[in-house]
Amino acid sequence: MISYITDPSLKSGPKFLRKKINAWIKSTAARYDFKVGDICYIFCSDEKILEVNRQFLQHDYYTDIITFDYTENGKINGDIFISVDTVKSNAEKFNVTFDNELMRVIIHGVLHLTGQNDKTPETEKVMHQKEDIALEELSKM
Q1: Bridge partners (DSSP) listed for residue 35
Q2: C-alpha span between 16 and 125 (Å, rounded)
Q3: Number of independent structural domains in the chain
Q4: Percentage of the chain surpassing pLDDT 70?
Q5: C-alpha dist (Å) from residue 14 to 26, 84, 125
Q6: By residue range, what is the domain housing residue 101?
Q7: SS3 annotation, the chain
Q8: Are the C-beta atoms of 138 and 99 separated by less than 8 Å?
Q9: Which residue has the higher pLDDT, 11 or 38?
Q10: CB under 8 Å to 87, separation ≥6 — which residues?
Q11: What is the mean pLDDT of the chain?
Q12: pTM, whole model, 2 decimals?
């Protein structure tokens, strides 16, 4: 099951077609030979994601996404925190729409759950290419 929660740090969460996005997430997971188990997206503010980053990862900086991976036995499971504030500022920075950047971040978390990483410049480039492929697929749905 895929769920979407808006943290109280936000007045309202982002709006999108959940059925369509759920199908897209499942399709992307299947591309990497995974099924979707339980994924919970938590949309929050910069302050909340900073708090999570400090508390659980001992990182003292803002980020757009934090993925907690509980994947096992070919089923992706996880909690994915997304800072709506950072998604907005990154959309402006990269000159893309908020919706485009939000979808990129949503699928970025799924890619992490399928074992993809972006720790080096090389793997970051590959991750970005995989995000582009997934975004292209979404545009055809």
Answers
A1: 75
A2: 27
A3: 1
A4: 100
A5: 20, 8, 27
A6: 2-139
A7: CEEEEECCCCCCCCCCCHHHHHHHHHHHHHHCCCEEEEEEEEEECHHHHHHHHHHHHCCCCCCCEEEEECCECCEEEEEEEEEHHHHHHHHHHCCCCHHHHHHHHHHHHHHHHCCCCCCCHHHHHHHHHHHHHHHHHHHCC
A8: no
A9: 38
A10: 14, 64, 98, 101, 102, 105
A11: 94
A12: 0.92
CATH code assigned at 17: 3.40.390.30
The structure tokens listed for 54 are 């400090």
CA atoms within 13 A on the CB side of 49: 25
Residues comprising the chain, all counted: 141
Tokens of 81: 């925190």
Tokens representing 109 are 């978390």
